[in-house]
């Protein structure tokens, strides 16, 4: 051992300082343009309208400092009104549940049950008719770090008319669709009239339930009915003993008062194929990408669950991702957190390819395809947050919203 070391050491002078080894270039793909800097609350999602309006959500369940306590002025949905300023959307009232987002009269405390106020929004998405939809989990962290369970009224889908910033529809999920330990994470819309009898289109939602009740939720936007599919299946569950790395640091899971655990987020990322016929989904605590024909999800008949489970397609491994997004090329964009990258899956050749890389990227949380031909995405340092071992906050403001030009003049696919 010692002599081997000496032999190796004696080679050192032979290696001139001019010797160049190749190294990771660190960057690839189209230029990243900075669109917005977040100095205030911690964002996850982003949505961009055809007129260039931009919106984000700030979930209280994943950052207790986003939780409205009745007097701290915290918001869970905002419009990005300047390059680094945000305004509660659609107004302060919707973001200010009276007495706060937590109901302390129950034991243990629970998410408040207001149907006309947001509790803890995990997503905002703009559909093909330019309407904004807010997905509320009904759950937030209390001041000691416990994520309280939702109560009926909290978990809901709220449609907002962007012409006059007014709520036009509220779909409250019943307890069998969004039980207290559900976590409705992200949503996509298909407004084609012919896919339902009611003719108003469908929303597809991932449930990434922290406690493991993962699944997909389907909503008929005409009747307001909703139902679950794939619950308890391996496709929506995280992998066991999952470990990812970001900037060299291991990503475990940390919750106040509980032992260190593995990061276990199930079904989270979601995207429709450009033609609306397939839904792509996958867990954050897992490297696989799945799809299912949307017809199987819309079916809620006697054999629909068996048929749904039998029709899931595994598209293979794609790296570690949070949100997904689609463009008119038919590509399914997904973050690639361990590579400081965004990649895309091409259903035509069944493989994932690199879209862009940048050393500033740490956690591409959510993406939104603009009608302007850009992919917008938040980069929010989630991997450095107190959710992750060792439970200390290594995030540094500002958090960022970037955009990059889509390939081949790709743009937002419209399903209406
Ligand atoms: C909220 O922010 C303050 C100040 O940065 C920090 O000390 C505190 O730990 C944060 N609380 C939560 C629940 O993250
Ligand atoms: C809410 O938060 C504010 C600001 O942190 C604090 O001053 C106030 O006491 C809190 N209110 C309650 C009811 O916890
Ligand atoms: C935002 O940034 C853009 C590009 O740097 C700049 O042109 C614009 O004036 C800025 N707007 C505000 C309100 O600061
Ligand atoms: C957090 O506080 C609530 C009361 O607000 C209590 O019910 C719960 O047990 C506490 N949890 C921990 C981990 O301290
Ligand atoms: C709080 O819980 C009580 C008991 O379940 C219920 O009657 C009340 O409506 C709840 N209030 C809110 C705002 O959630
Ligand atoms: C949105 O509001 C505008 C202005 O009142 C109205 O013309 C439009 O029809 C509304 N759109 C929807 C989808 O309700
Ligand atoms: C917004 O538009 C909708 C649909 O036209 C209408 O019902 C509603 O009253 C309008 N709200 C405001 C505040 O103008
Ligand atoms: C709905 O119409 C589109 C064409 O607009 C067609 O491609 C699709 O197959 C139809 N879907 C159903 C479920 O009939
Ligand atoms: C799959 O298709 C994409 C888009 O055309 C392309 O960039 C990629 O190189 C293809 N993958 C392979 C392995 O050929
Ligand atoms: C993109 O659109 C521009 C303007 O219409 C056109 O000149 C260009 O050829 C298109 N590029 C591709 C790759 O389709």
TrEMBL record:
Main location, first listed in the record: secreted
Localization of this protein: Secreted
Signal peptide: 1-18
Any GO CC annotation of this UniProt entry: extracellular region
Listed InterPro entries: 6-blade_b-propeller_TolB-like (IPR011042), MRJP/yellow-related (IPR017996)
Record keywords: Secreted, Signal
Domain of life: Eukaryota
Family named by the database record: Belongs to the major royal jelly protein family.
The protein's name in its UniProt record: Major royal jelly protein
Organism: Aureobasidium subglaciale (strain EXF-2481)
């Amino acid at each position: 051992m010692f002599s081997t070391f000496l032999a190796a050491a004696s080679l050192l002078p032979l290696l001139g300082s001019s010797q160049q080894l190749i190294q990771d270039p660190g960057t690839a793909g189209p230029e990243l343009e900075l669109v917005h800097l977040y100095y205030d609350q911690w964002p996850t999602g982003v949505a961009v309208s055809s007129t260039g309006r931009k919106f984000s959500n700030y979930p209280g369940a994943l950052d207790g400092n986003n939780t409205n306590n009745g007097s701290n002025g915290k918001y869970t949905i905002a419009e990005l009104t300047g390059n680094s300023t945000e305004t509660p959307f659609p107004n302060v009232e919707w973001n200010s549940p009276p007495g706060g987002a937590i109901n302390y009269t129950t034991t243990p405390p629970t998410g408040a049950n207001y149907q006309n106020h947001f509790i803890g929004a995990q997503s905002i998405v703009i559909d093909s008719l330019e309407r904004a939809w807010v997905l509320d989990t009904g759950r937030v962290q209390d001041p000691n770090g416990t994520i309280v369970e939702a109560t009926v009224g909290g978990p809901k889908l709220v449609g907002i008319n962007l012409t006059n910033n007014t709520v036009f529809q509220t779909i409250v999920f019943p307890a069998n669709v969004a039980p207290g330990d559900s976590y409705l994470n992200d949503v996509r819309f298909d407004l084609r009239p012919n896919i339902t009898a009611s003719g108003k289109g469908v929303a597809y939602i991932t449930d990434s339930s922290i406690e493991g009740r993962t699944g997909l939720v389907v909503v008929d936007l005409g009747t307001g009915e909703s139902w679950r599919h794939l619950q308890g299946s391996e496709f929506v569950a995280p992998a066991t003993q999952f470990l990812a790395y970001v900037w060299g640091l291991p990503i475990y899971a940390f919750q106040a008062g509980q032992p260190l655990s593995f990061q276990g987020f199930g079904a989270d990322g979601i995207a429709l194929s450009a033609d609306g016929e397939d839904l792509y989904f996958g867990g954050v605590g897992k490297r696989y990408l799945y799809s299912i024909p949307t017809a199987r999800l819309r079916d809620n008949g006697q054999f629909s669950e068996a048929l749904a489970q039998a029709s899931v397609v595994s598209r293979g491994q794609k790296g570690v991702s949070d949100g997904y997004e689609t463009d008119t090329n038919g590509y399914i964009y997904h973050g690639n957190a361990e590579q400081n990258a965004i990649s895309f899956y091409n259903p035509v050749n069944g493989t994932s390819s690199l879209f862009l890389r940048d050393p500033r990227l740490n956690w591409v949380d959510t993406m939104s395809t603009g009608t302007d031909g850009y992919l917008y995405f938040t980069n929010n340092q989630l991997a450095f947050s107190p959710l992750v071992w060792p439970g200390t906050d290594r995030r540094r403001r500002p958090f960022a919203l970037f955009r990059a030009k889509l390939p081949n003049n790709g743009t937002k696919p419209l399903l209406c």
